[in-house]
Amino acid sequence: MGETFGEQFSRLAGLMFICGTIQQLVPTKLRHYVEKLWANLVNYFYPYVHITFHEYTRGMHNEAYSCIRTYLGSKSSKKATRLTAEKSVDSMSLAISLDEGQEIIDEFNGVQFQWQAYKEMIEGTSSSSRSGRSGASIPLEKSFYVLVFHKTYREMVTGTYLEHVMEEGKAIQLSNRKRKLYTNKNSDNWYWNGGKWSHINFTHPATFDTLAMDPKKKQEIINDLTAFRKGKDYYAKIGKAWKRGYLLHGPPGTGKSTMIAAIANFLEYDIYDLELTSVENNAELKQLLIDTRSKSVIVIEDIDCSLDLTGKRNKKTESSEKSEEEKDSNSGQDEEDKNTNKSKVTLSGLLNFIDGIWSACGQERIIIFTTNHVDKLDPALIRRGRMDMHIEMSYCKFEAFKVLAKNYLDIDSHHLFEEIRQLLEETNVSPCDVAENLMPKTDSSDAEHCLMDLIQAIKAAKEKERLKGDKEVKAANKFKANLLKRFTSIKKSAKVMK
Ligand SMILES: Nc1ncnc2c1ncn2[C@@H]1O[C@H](COP(=O)(O)OP(=O)(O)OP(=O)(O)O)[C@@H](O)[C@H]1O
Ligand SMILES: [Mg+2]
Questions:
Q1: Nearest C-alpha to atom 31 of ligand 1 is from which residue?
Q2: Of 56, 212, 272, 490, which residue has the fewest beta carbons closer than 10 angstroms?
Q3: Which of 208, 214, 246, 258 for a ligand 1 pocket mutation test, highest count of atoms within 8 Å of Cβ?
Q4: 353-370 b/e with 16+ CB inside 10 Å = b?
């Protein structure tokens, strides 16, 4: 193709123009005959195929058009000489695209494909009644791309090339878009207020680099997420929905919420923060799930506090031989919940949310639960396959401290590090408390000041732990003494009775 292709194309276009002019001068019958002959001639000698992609088809926006536009934009910014640029509210960067009348050659698997951008004005009719000119003729802009290729590559185009263009265009669009943090609305507001979820732009700065935790554990999580992201074909092969569950557990302030932000930033996904307490029943839960998009992280924070799900499944199993899923439709239970005016989402409703048949509608999703009390959760909820990876976020140890020191003070080493290492080995302090102490309190605070503050804070926490321990030992001793006293008195009275 290349120059030869361009020359051939313009020669044929010239010929077509001359023939078109001749055709207008001859009678209709003869013209039809000439047209037919011409079409056959062109088919015989012209070996190229044209495919047109319109911006709108049957009044609807054509998704293929916008994917092609983005794809060609990324190619043409390096090759074409005339481009257009625009910025939408949903996009983080300027969208560059091929300007009208421009063409570029794209190479795929060693084959060249020509793309041309066109715009034309057509006459449309206004349906607006605001101006009182309903039905008036207005000029409309019609944009389209034409793909030109040699007919020998027809199969390649329909088989792999167009798929490649669509996928790459979509991927660029996704990485350029502003990501969103969604929260579920109360169902009373679903239908008059545009959808079931409200959203704001998601701009949390947390990344795995700034997350303080054991480096080995962190790498494991990164590897798991990377495998998941690339796993489309693998999940399809094993017949599993393309989703993965993570359970984050640990004491307050150990970075569970921060980890969620880091995961979403790493995968470039949106976040759906599901507030279970404002979901009225299992049916609503299902509808919320269906209304989420692919490439998203669905989060239920503090799952143990969200609903009374703990142990419910076990209790029910004892009281009846019905399966959990059957009990879900138990109207008696529903009635009871209605009376107590509580959310009727049940454990089985939640299990269906995670791995029921509906959960597979819309792929590439991560589901994350967080809790401070993993031992309180029903084993069914967190078994592998539902929550595939259990991640314990623990108190701050030296490796995690080093990450925080780098983040907050921009230092890799300091003579006080050794003392801090020893103190952290002996005391339980959350990364949140460590981070708080590493923040400079005044303009003149330097690294030394902050580290000294931290040492004082850890020592105070250590003393508190010791006092608490002493108090507990004292209470235990008192309890033991009381028990012994009672036992001796019982023994005495038994002797008297004898
Ligand atoms: N592992 C960590 N790495 C980096 N920063 C952390 C970490 N843990 C806590 N922080 C800091 O402490 C703050 C609180 O952490 P975060 O909200 O993630 O804790 P959490 O485990 O979700 O707590 P809770 O159980 O109370 O919800 C964060 O804003 C962050 O600045
Ligand atoms: Mg949290």
A1: 432
A2: 490
A3: 258
A4: bbbbeebeebebbbbbbb
